[in-house]
Design a protein that fits this description.
With about 250 residues, this protein is an alpha/beta fold. The protein folds into 2 domains: about 150 residues, 3-Layer(aba) Sandwich (Rossmann fold); about 80 residues, Putative phosphatase, domain 2 (DNA polymerase, domain 1, Orthogonal Bundle). The chain has 9 helices and 6 strands. A 6-stranded parallel sheet has the order 3-2-1-4-5-6, with helices on both faces. α1 crosses α4, α3 crosses α4 and α4 runs parallel beside α6. It starts with a strand and ends in a 14-residue tail after the last helix. Bound molecules: xylulose-1,5-bisphosphate (XBP) and magnesium ion (MG). Xylulose-1,5-bisphosphate (XBP) binds next to α1.
Length: about 250
Amino acid sequence: MLQALIFDVDGTLADTEQAHLAAFNHAFAQEGMGWHWDEALYTELLNISGGKERMLHHWQQVQPDLKDIGGSGVRDTIARLHELKTAAYESAVQSGAVSLRPGVLRLMSEAAAAGIRLAIATTTSPVNIAALLTQAIGPDWRTHFVAIGDASTAPHKKPHPQVYLQMLAALDLPASACLALEDSSNGLRAATAAGLPTVITPTSYTQHHDFSGALRVVTDLGAVSLGHLRTWHAEASQPAAQAPRSPVVS
Ligand code: XBP
Ligand code: MG
């Protein structure tokens, strides 16, 4: 029986990556890195979860002879860039650059009314979650979630399952009693590795990803009710003998 929904943030609660991309480029200009990520490059770089990991990956790509990878010089620069980026992203979100995707708020209240608990499992930074959900829900946004797993609690980023395993422990529920909502193949892989049936709502940055193994792939949650999620979740617990369900794209 469905007892909890575990939401990813970026791409799932809200289509945020355009705002993240602008914030990264703002930080690169402020720091004089001489880097500018366009949509195509960023779409590729999104295969690396975590802004710091993504910048380090890019740095190694553009400067293969980069020394001191693990040393303090590179680490301090990445940390400084990420601080600048996070500040730029936070102010963009606070000025209304990002809104929740269709159906998210309604599903959250339907779930709460039905006694289904909510958690968050993301690789983004806590500041970003607070900025987005304070703007979208209000200062009491934390009261809607039983637990929050993010870059500060789970250093191993998706597709590593760490953040989902943390949420299952916090909810004290088996994966079979939960449903994950994600937008990317890294997120699907992390949730699946933790044993969670997963519903995918892709964005323009992830629509080309491989979503094999997803319970469902839907354009967005605008036409998805709690009843749909319960039905799909019940299907997931049917014996595997059933013919494998190809994900339905609405
Ligand atoms: C998406 C990510 C994050 C964001 C940028 O997180 O991978 O890295 O792109 O945010 P998710 P940070 O889909 O798991 O919510 O710079 O704070 O990492
Ligand atoms: Mg995501």
